[in-house]
Amino acid sequence: MSDIRYVTSRDGTRLAMSIHGSGVPAVRVMLHLGDQLDSPGIGSRHWQHALAPHVSVVPYDARGCGLSDRQAEPITLDSCLEDLEAVVGVLGAGPVVLLGLSHGSMVAVAFAARHPERVSRLVVYGGYARGRLQRGPDVAHAQEAKAILEAMQVAFGEDVPYRSAFLRTVNSRLFPSASPQQLDEVEAAIAGRMSASVAAAYTTLSLECDVSEHARRVTCPTLQFHARADLAVPFEEGCHLASLIPQARFVPLDDDSNIPLAGNPHWPRVATELRGFLGMEDPMPKATPADVIAAPSTASLTSRQIEVLLLISQGNTDKEIARALGLSPRTVEMHAGNALRALKCRTRAEGVHLAAHLGLLR
Predict the structure, then answer these.
(1) Whole-number Å distance between alpha carbons of 1 and 6
(2) Is 260 within 8 Å of 267 (Cβ atoms)?
(3) Residue 127 in contact with residue 224, Cβ under 8 Å?
(4) Are 346 and 355 in contact (CB under 8 A)?
(5) What span, in angstroms and rounded, lies between the C-alpha atoms of 171 and 302?
(6) How do residues 243-280 score in pLDDT, each as one tens digit?
(7) How far apart are CA 301 and CA 180, in angstroms?
(8) Most buried of the four, 52, 103, 181, 189, by CB within 10 Å?
């Protein structure tokens, strides 16, 4: 295990970090779970192995988690950005790569927008721009958000009956296909790493935060991965984030894990894409073009189809689009379907992402 070092954030909070390997630093940004620095399941080993020897992986424990200061209020987007600034600040004057995983993607995206001179590449896995409560007024979203918050408080509470059962429920949403043994390893790695109040603070941040405007200002090349069957962060939200980032390349995975555990069957492909994106020598064989959402050489959409796709990208339903354009919901559905056929896309999320990268959604 690499030596652990400490850096101090602007408000005096001490943060634990480590550097695995040598080369250009790639800072691994996570929330909620913190970052068990050397866990076999959720730690940095498989990232380090994929990127060695040209890139060093730099994990750190978020404030309030793990080996960082446990009494570390406030927990806000700004405080998380100041913490990341402290970590990046000790890595030299050159730009770094950011690896934004799951809820940590919000912090990574916002940092890349605020500090373009410090970020050379951005990698997002299982990320999103809008927290669950920022995706439009929806009773189901509000109820689910409340349930998630309560589950996190119980899962990380002390001396709470059935605590382990709640923790298993939380992790089963992040890693639905994980074996019982893998879930045992994850739970052992994160046991006692944060208090119930810290878990609630990070959960609230992830539910209420919206970094959409930051995403539009990201200028560095971005590679984004998202599992099609992700239960924690819907695939459509991943597509929405990619549509906002000007230079994002979106890679969908036929998986259900929000972030990849060591041994994930899709990890070889992810590692291949990472190495190619970072310009590393001797990359593994490229993924086949059919595996990646790519723009067709030509795409002809009518102005009405573009209007409909733009409104879809903003999270509107067919009924809301129909009211805005003075159409019937059936006509909106027809325009959306014709646009998808022209773009050769299977889903609306893919169509929106593709149209954005063709420069059609302005």
Answers:
(1) 15
(2) yes
(3) yes
(4) no
(5) 44
(6) 999 989 999 999 999 999 878 889 989 999 999 999 98
(7) 48
(8) 103
Q: What amino acid occupies position 324? A: A
For residues 348 and 243, give the distance between their C-alpha atoms in angstroms, rounded to a whole number: 12
C-alpha 357/C-alpha 362 separation (Å) is: 10
- The strand pair at 4-8 and 14-18 is best described as antiparallel
Q: Report how far residue 47's alpha carbon sits from residue 52's, in angstroms, rounded to the nearest whole number.
A: 8
Closest CA to 197 of 143, 149, 161: 149
* Greater pLDDT, 358 or 115: 115
Between CA 174 and CA 137 the distance in angstroms is 24
Structure tokens at 167: 């923790």
Q: What are 296's two structure tokens?
A: 């067709």
C-alpha to C-alpha distance for 1 and 43, rounded to whole angstroms: 11
Whether the Cβ atoms of residue 168 and residue 180 lie closer than 8 Å to each other: no
| pLDDT tens, residue by residue, 327-347 | 899 999 999 999 888 888 888
